[in-house]
Structure formats: C-alpha cells, structure tokens
Amino acid sequence: xxxxxxxxxxxxxxxxxxxxxxxxxxxxxxxxxxxxxxxxxxxxxxxxxxxxxxxxxxxxxxxxxxxxxxxxxxxxxxxxxxxxxxxxxxxxxxxxxxxxxxxxxxxxxxxxxxxxxxxxxxxxxxxxxxxxxxxxxxxxxxxxxxxxxxxxxxxxxxxxxxxxxxxxxxxxxxxxxxxxxxxxxxxxxxxxxxxxxxxxxxxxxxxxxxxxxxxxxxxxxxxxxxxxxxxxxxxxxxxxxxxxxxxxxxxxxxxxxxxxxxxxxxxxxxxxxxxxxxxxxxxxxxxxxxxxxxxxxxxxxxxxxxxxxxxxxxxxxxxxxxxxxxxxxxxxxxxxxxxxxxxxxxxxxxxxxxxxxxxxxxxxxxxxxxxxxxxxxxxxxxxxxxxxxxxxxxxxxxxxxxxxxxxxxxxxxxxxxxxxxxxxxxxxxxxxxxxxxxxxxxxxxxxxxxxxxxxxxxxxxxxxxxxxxxxxxxxxxxxxxxxxxxxxxxxxxxxxxxxxxxxxxxxxxxxxxxxxxxxxxxxxxxxxxxxxxxxxxxxxxxxxxxxxxxxxxxxxxxxxxxxxxxxxxxxxxxxxxxxxxxxxxxxxxxxxxxxxxxxxxxxxxxxxxxxxxxxxxxxxxxxxxxxxxxxxxxxxxxxxxx
Length: 642
Ligand SMILES: Nc1ncnc2c1ncn2[C@@H]1O[C@H](COP(=O)(O)OP(=O)(O)OP(=O)(O)O)[C@@H](O)[C@H]1O
Prior knowledge:
Distance between the termini: 28 Å
Number of strands: 23
Largest sheet: 7 strands, mixed
Shape: globular
Bound molecules: adenosine-5'-triphosphate
Structural class: alpha+beta
Number of helices: 15
C-alpha cells in the first residue's frame, strides 16, 4: 500500500457548510477513480456546474501499475476529507500518486507552489558531497529526458546509478503531461536544486510540487547485495515512506496556486525486469478487453435499426448515414454507417476507436462502440434526442424554444467540452470542424459535441475535391463560416482555430444568425464584423436574437458577445485559450481585454481547396498574399498522443 507523504490544504477559503461543493468533490473523486486505470497515470476533469464546480486531477508515478495507481487514488480520495475537511483546494501526495482538486481551473498550466521537500533526518551518505554531486548529475539528466516528451505525452524518466559497489542510487523525475517541456524542465531543475540544498547528502528525498514529483533513494545494488559491509543500511521494511524521522520542509507557504506540477525525486525499485514484462502483458490484456467490450455484432446493429431501415435514418453527414437504433435492453443508440473509405487497416481503426471511446465528458457525445464486419465500418454512439443546435437557433420558430438561460448554459457547456478535448483528456484533440450542426442537445438541453476523433477513426483523407455546385460543397469546413483565417488561408490549425470556431458559435447563438458570409465573396460584413461594429457603437444588445424576448440578462449577453469577439480575433495568439474562456464565462470578476477589430477575408473554394483571393485584417494594416494555400487534409479532428 502506498504511503502518505504529505497533504496540503487551502486554509483561508474554507467553504464550511457548502454541502453542494463537498458533494461535487465526491463526484469528482469518483470520476477520477473510474478513470484511474485508463489514462496512463494522469487524468484531469471537472465536476458539476459553477458556482460549485470543482476541478481535479491525479498523477501516478510513471512506473506504477494502473491497478496500483487506482488503489492509490482511491486511498487519497478516501483520506482527503479527513486531511482537508471543507477546503476549497487540496493536494495529497502519496508515494505512488498525487491527487489534487480546486475550485479554480488547474489544467494545463504550471503551478510552482506549494512545494514540499521531504527527507529522513538520519541516513546520510558517507561522502555527502560526492553523493550530492551524483544526485545532481543524475537528476539533471532525467529532468531533461522527462521534459523532452511533447505536450500531452508522459513526462517521466528514471535512472539507476552506482554510488558505491554496495549502494545504488535510484532517481525518478516526472511532470504532469499537461505542462510544456520548457516549464517541466525549469521546474524540475528548481526542484532538484532545492532538494539538494535541503537533503544535503541524505540518501533519500522527495520533492513534491503541484506539477511534479522528484524522488531519490539509495538502496543496495540491484542484484545480489553482498552479505556484509553495507556502507549504508537499506531501508527497514515498511519504512520506505515518510516516517517519524522524516523532516518536512515547506518551501513556500500557500497562496492560491493554480496548477499542479509535481516532482518526485528518486525511489527504489525499478529494477525487476520480470515485473516490467508482467506489466506489459497485463496492458495487452486490458487492450483486448477494451476492444471486446466496444465491439458490436453486425446482427445486433441490424436488429436495432431494422436493417438500416429508411424510417430509422436520422441524417447523413460527411462520413456517412446516421440511423437511430434500439438495443434489446431498450437503450437508444445512434449508428453511424461510415461511407468513407480511408484505406486505414482494421487494427488502426480499432485502436483509434478505443482511444476515442475513452474520452468521456458530459459535453461530448459518447462513443459506445464499433462494428467491423463484412465491408461495414460502423460507429455506435449514445443517442442524443434533441437534434442539433442549428435546428433551433437558426429557425425563426424554434428559436423561441431556447431562452437566454438555456443558451448561456449551452455556451458554457460547449466551452467545457472543448476545453476537455484541448487539454483535459489524455489525447489532445483539435476539433477543427466545430459548428452548430455538430452540437447535439440532450433531453435537458445539455450540449454535446459530436464527431470528435473522426480524423483518426477514418484515417486522414486528402483534400476535398467537391465541385462548388455540389450540395456537399456547403459542408466544407471553410464554407461553414467557422474556419479561422489562418486555417482557411494558410492551412494552419491549432487549438486557437477551434477557439475561433467557438467564438463564431457564441455569436451565432446570441444573434440567432448564421455566419456564412465567408463563402460568398460579395459579403464584406460577416457576423463578427457586424457584432464588432454594433459593440463599438455602444449597442451590443442590438445584435441579440429578438426571439430571446426579455429572457435575457444584459450583463451576461454583453459578456458573451465580448468573449465571442475575443475568440475571433485575427491573431491566433491574441485569442484566449479554452481554459481562459471557461474562466471568463464562469466568473464575472475576470476582467476581459478589449477585443481587437476582428479579421475578415474573402474566400473562395476552387477545386475543393480553399485558395485565398484576399485576406486582410479589418484594420487594413496587414495584407498577406498567398495564392496557393491549401488544406491538404480534411480530417475534421486531430488527435495528438499525450
Ligand atoms: N449521437 C447522435 N444522436 C442523435 N442524432 C445524431 C447523433 N449523431 C448524429 N446525429 C444526427 O445525424 C445527422 C447527421 O450527423 P453527422 O454527424 O453524420 O453529420 P453532420 O454533423 O450533419 O455533418 P458533418 O459530417 O459534416 O459533421 C445530424 O442531423 C445529427 O442530428
């Protein structure tokens, strides 16, 4: 069983008596625990709604088996209420894992405080200076190896080094995968420096940070230690964690930190290659189990959809037709029968399905499984009963069915779903085709982003070559009015192109108007430009959809318009991240910068490729000419392994 190392709780901001927040912490812990074996040792998510939303994450040491990781998270979650009763945030460090929660977003940014260094007050190395130098050299090396991993990938490295013939140094450095390599490296270096100062030749030490772990420990040599003359005794059984002899150094006192970075220094026990092999086998087993649990027999899908009967067809999109189905246990499903031939092999298809199926968030449509039989490639989703957002917001009659509180809730829900795709999940996903028709509404009008992960599932497809006259042409992402200028013109996409699309969505939801003017070169005033002008003239509320009647809350509408305009700024760097957007939407006390005048451009599509005819900023200051900009793949979602 993993040993508790240290816990750090907020003190000033207790929420005594706020049962809702406490209940949300419990929900959060159960989400984290459910995901403990699935996400390669790191997972972050949030639970429930503002004002009682709670953000949380866990990080398990990179060498800890998923089941031990889960046990460690469960343990930390069980003790957290006792260690930190009624606290708004807390971090609990165990030898094998770290659990953290907060009432503020703690995702994807470095938190440098609080830092805790731990070491035994006995057990000093016989040559402390040489030992310290060795620790310094080893930690430097593993700090750079751990931080080398790209954003989202596991940032973890270990090393064994001989101190004496009888004594081996075990070191481990790890950062949460959601921070950048630069931040990870810098933080690890600082943590090592501090740890060396504090432990000063001690043979074991832990550097605990919100975003990193650092562990160091010496023990006998890995194989057959000599029977006698150990210069340093190996740790007594059961004493490898914090004991009464452990000295605690809290380097920085609490002040509201925002992020979790963790350093754990060296630790014993990465030696048994047998153990590693056993672990790998178990991983393979769990992959096969995951595949099996997601597999649907074609006969079951045929029965559920009445053999893909016309009456069951609920729509068709760029990837094929969608049918409603009912399983024998009464569960309603949406069956997407893929028509796209991607050339992707069955293995690859299955692998991607498993990855995407792992993504779970209340604002994402859940992928339940797949079917690969005969020539069929089918995806099975949860059925979302209320159609897509575009059915409501652009229809003069149905617009009335969505009042302001509902639209506001929808905006916030989409933002959270997108944030999860960008930074909260184990796969970083750029949605690339966010639009009103891809937002489905459930029975409680909770928005769910659909179709994410399609690029990977169906493989990459080369550029569209759909004639302009074809009805399918209007389905091109660049034609839908949601495509950012840099994506449309230069083919560059990033999280910030999704932020742009989200900004357009906000404006469409508020205004009840489509932003389709990009497709028609005659237009000069697209939706963002129109809204920007109205806001500048002091009439932001004038853009609001009249169907909202008097259901609206003026401050909220104005704030949403403001945030929407920030998201559609020409310079991707100037657009906020989704984490910032979620924060701005959830807290009216966050000050919003002034939006720059929005970009607009005239785009045409020739031979299926967006080719730029003109592109300029609304301030008419920047003009970029590029006649051959292409988007060479139309995959609608991009996944990056973490
Ligand atoms: N999980 C689901 N539950 C209920 N209806 C769904 C579900 N998924 C898709 N649909 C419906 O099926 C129709 C087609 O969806 P699909 O996602 O294939 O295409 P699209 O979003 O219209 O276009 P594109 O493929 O370009 O994104 C949509 O009208 C949508 O409302």
